[in-house]
Amino acid sequence: MQLVTEDNITTLAEQRWATAKDPRTAQLMTALVRHLHDFAREVRLTEAEWMTAIQWLTATGQISDEKREEFILASDVLGLSMLVVQMNHRFEPGATPATVLGPFHIEGSPELGFGGDMSDDVAGTPLYITGTVRSLDGSPVPDAVLDVWQADADGAYEAQLDVDEARLRAKYHAREDGTYCVRTIAPKGYSIPMDGPVGDLIGRTEISHFRPAHVHFLLTADGHEPLITHLFEEGAEYLDSDVVFGTKQELVVRYDQREPGSTPDGLECSVPWVEARYDFVLQPCAPH
Ligand code: BEZ
Ligand code: FE
């Protein structure tokens, strides 16, 4: 019989998990066991504390469904999502940096033409985001797809509302010369959902639970790495304290105030609007 002691249990558990048939699974699981045991030893984890943690994980699972992604939120506020993004998207200097996907992206957004309005009747200041999608060498990337989504002026995403139609999200295509034009409303900073286990935990700290105003982008184009990123408004509140660590200086854009009149898509806007100009630079795929 194998005698299990406080001293040998980590080695025994690692040996067991090293038998995983897939070598990468074996590597991941043995490292996980080692770090979990080290954590428990370092903090001298009590049984009551471990039960509280298990109940928190259970609640995180129970509140999650196809619209509510509490585990993504947990990973985001721990800084783990952003660490994994940065390790896996080490683009060349000059390429637009990647940031977190977040829990609110919805697949299959409707396609809109150049300057098509993804805000429909949602209240807010009209915002045009225009620019060119380029490759690292500066050449335009025709037909890049820009999948765009954002929150409304109350900080609510479609996934958090009971609506039947696509709301504040759309797909745009860059034209032959790489230019694109998104029409939406100026986003506001907002709080992450605080009514679940993640909010409960954050509420026990001094952590700010807000994100600075931003619009999300997922760009895809032939021959280039997909790019998940955001554009943040220059001067926005919470840029220095983003609760999910998603801000980067390269992703901050100026909003220029415009009077009623002609807009970048050649049409007219009858109320004051704002314009943000940004050229996305995509990282070409590594040669095989
Ligand atoms: C978001 O920007 O949509 C988001 C990202 C991470 C956590 C919560 C929200
Ligand atoms: Fe967001």
From TrEMBL:
* Cross-referenced PANTHER family: DIOXYGENASE, PUTATIVE (AFU_ORTHOLOGUE AFUA_2G02910)-RELATED, INTRADIOL RING-CLEAVAGE DIOXYGENASES DOMAIN-CONTAINING PROTEIN-RELATED
Which positions fall inside the Intradiol ring-cleavage dioxygenases domain? 129-157
Note the SUPFAM superfamilies from the entry: Aromatic compound dioxygenase
List, separated by semicolons, the cofactors it needs. Fe(3+)
- Alphabetically list the UniProt keywords: Dioxygenase, Iron, Metal-binding, Oxidoreductase
Output the Pfam families linked to this UniProt entry. Dioxygenase_C, Dioxygenase_N
Which family is it part of? Belongs to the intradiol ring-cleavage dioxygenase family.
**Cross-referenced InterPro entries:** Catechol_dOase_N, Intradiol_dOase_C, Intradiol_dOase_core, Intradiol_RC_Dioxygenase
Name-wise, this protein is Catechol 1,2-dioxygenase
Gene3D superfamilies attached to this UniProt entry: Aromatic compound dioxygenase (2.60.130.10)
Q: What domain of life does the UniProt record list for this protein's source?
A: Bacteria
